[in-house]
Amino acid sequence: MSSSGPEPSASVLDVFRQSVAEIIARSLEIPIETAYDGVDLGKKGVDFTVAIPRFRRPGKPQELGKKIEQEFSPNDYLERLVVDGVFAHFYCNSKALTRLTLDQINELSRPTESAPFGTYGCNSSGRGKKVVIEFSSPNIAKPFHAGHLRSTIIGTFLSNLYSANGWETIRMNYLGDWGKQFGLLAVAFAKYGSEEKLAANPIMHLFDIYVAINKDVKEQEATGHSSVNEEAKDVFRRMEQGDTEMLALWRRFRELSIEAYKKVYQRLNITFDVYSGESLVTTANIDASMQRLRNSNLLVEKFAWESKRDRDYNAVGQQAQDEKPAYAVDLSKWKMSKPVVQKADGTTIYMVRDIAGAMQRYQQYHFDKMIYVVGDQQDLHCQQFFKILELMGEPYASSLQHINFGKVQGMSTRNGEVKFLDEILDMAKEAMLAQMKTNEDKFSNVEDPDFTSDQIGMTCVKIQDMQAKRAGSYPFDVKRMTSFEGDTGAYLQYAHVRLCSVARKVADETTLREDVTTINTDLLVEPKAREVVYHLATYPDAVRMALRVSEPSTIVTYCFRLSHLISSAWETLVVKGQDPEVAQARLYLFTCARHVLSSAMRLLSLTPLERM
Ligand code: ARG
To answer: CATH number, domain at 19?
Structure first.
């Protein structure tokens, strides 16, 4: 199952898995690595399961199973084997599993300078490799829609995930900061702009004037001709030719917007290493790309009327009359139509900027992998430019990956459609605050209701987004997602708070010993304890698995399972008023559980709360 090989210093379970692999390798006479890859986590109380037929050994699986049985004798790590048909089920020695798991969690949860929250769950499989992850990527002067929200949430998670798997990770925000609309925005600013409003809330002001100017264009177009549109096109052409005055204005729009975005990202606990953008793809790289396409005979001429439905090309639909050809790449052989890469008037478009942008990023970062976190509406666009890069013979073309996701339905506020990221977060925060206020007693004890409701609100938004597989779509439902019932972000925060509060509640009787080696973990004999320990031990596996499938839901599911196991363990594993040795052992278990839940929540970019 694991293709990265055992790493016992990161995952104690690997020690047990190796022991299983040795028995399998010996009895089936196969290489230990092959055997190791065939050791799966078990289900329903089974620790490991091996499907015997997968190794394709001569002989009946049932007989091979008998051989495994003969070969098996309990050792330090494994206490029992049950062969059931073609499956061999292994059970770990519970005392060893408990001791080693808790000690490893404790050890690896210590804060260090490079890892303030410890490293339990992390592994080094990506050591020496570099990944560029592009996500969020909103467009300046346009709404921050649900697609950007999902890209932001999923992209942050993926960045954390690659880092946890040992990769060097570069987080990139590729802003929509170039294109004909910036010509329009400049015209809008001259007509409707206000310096004060721009300074006070750049994102909102740019959006407002952009809406106003688009209305003008629409009205003019209804009468046949839009002078505003002509002017905008002219301004953008000037920008592309390097007009200093126009560029200075545009730069200010860009910088103020980035500053404003940074504040919201900070609220969300998200940082970027690079604020890139369409504007930063250099002319030299665009020219080089066009040249390469031409040299390799990939360019075909395409007339405006042929491409009515192409994304960026729509805007120049009127040019059909003069029949100037644009340049396209014929991908019909791969059923990817003929995407236009350059417009007739020579101005650049989204497509060619993505082609040249990939080249540019490779020159700069020499990445081993590059990921684009973009909604599934752009599936075709990504397939197209990946294909074009492949046809151009770019060596990294096969290292590009589009991580897509489905739509969010019905994301709107009371005042209508959502336009800004802040609005979404405020909405969740308010709903959370209202929820919290329904329990007056509790609410009066919350130290910082503002911070707390904001954090839980954001947790709810993020969990709602990450709990199902990326490809699915979901309805944005503030009421449901902020409920304390069911698997919500609020419930997860509550589970963490409760783990924090055990130690507080027994503080007058007992505190966890500094030297944990003196804690007798053999006292954790209850099946409930065993279940929790096993699940804690599988966290490093969950981190590896999540990377393999690029699914945040793997970690969300892990968190909920852990929370449920703990919630059902409280009754049996009481700490208060117990024999001091038993209390120590149980407190040790809950402390380790808290470390793991906290790590998993941080991996999901959440801030685990200690009180609420
Ligand atoms: N700004 C784009 C949009 O809002 C998303 C950018 C996706 N990334 C890319 N390299 N094309 O649609």
So the answer is: 3.30.1360.70
* Residues 354 and 434 both lie in one domain: no
Residues 74 and 80: beta-carbon distance below 8 Å:
yes
Task: Looking at the structure, tell me whether residues 388 and 432 fall in a common domain.
Answer: no
Of 59, 92, 125, at which residue does a domain stop?
Answer: 92
Structural domain boundaries enclosing 577: 421-603
Test site for ligand 1: of 140, 377, 378, most ligand atoms within 8 A of the Cβ: 378
Q: Are strands 274-277 and 408-409 parallel, antiparallel or unpaired?
A: unpaired
Per the CB < 8 A criterion, the answer to whether 122 and 160 are in contact is: no
- Domain assignment present for 160: no
- For atom 6 of ligand 1, the residue with the nearest CA is 137
Strand partners, 275: 173
336 shares a domain with 470: no
Residue 316: the pLDDT is 42
Active site residues: 142, 145, 148
Distance in angstroms (rounded) separating the CA atoms of residues 568 and 566: 5
Q: Which 3-state string (H, E, C) describes 317-379?
A: HHHHHHCCEEEEECCHHHCCCCCEEECCCCCECHHHHHHHHHHHHHHHHCCCEEEEECCHHHH
320 and 451 share one domain: no
Q: Supply the pTM of this predicted model.
A: 0.94
- Predicted interface score ipTM higher than 0.85: yes
DSSP bridge partners of 303: 325
Residue nearest (by alpha carbon) to ligand 1 atom 11: 354
Which residues of the chain, if any, have pLDDT below 70?
1-3, 304-323, 413-416
Q: Are residues 358 and 435 in the same domain?
A: no
**Domains identified in the chain, total number:** 3
The token pair that represents 353 in the structure block: 């900027």
Q: How many angstroms is it from 371 CA to the middle of ligand 1?
A: 12
Which segments within 448-491 are labelled E, that is strand? 474-475
Sign of CA dihedral 212, 214, 216, 222: negative
List strands edge to edge, sheet with 400-403: 274-277, 168-175, 130-134, 369-373, 400-403
Report the distance separating Cα 238 and Cα 180, nearest Å.
11
Helix (H) or strand (E) holding 337, with range, is none
- From the CA of 415, how far away is ligand 1's center (Å)? 27
Q: Which two tokens stand for residue 188?
A: 């809008």
Q: Which of 356, 376, 393 is the last residue before a domain boundary?
A: 393
441 with 389, same domain? no
pLDDT in tens, 184-223: 999 999 999 999 999 999 999 999 999 999 999 999 999 9
139 CB near ligand 1 (under 6 Å): yes
Q: Do residues 137 and 143 make contact, with C-beta atoms less than 8 angstroms apart?
A: no
How far, in Å, is the centroid of ligand 1 from the Cα of 378?
8
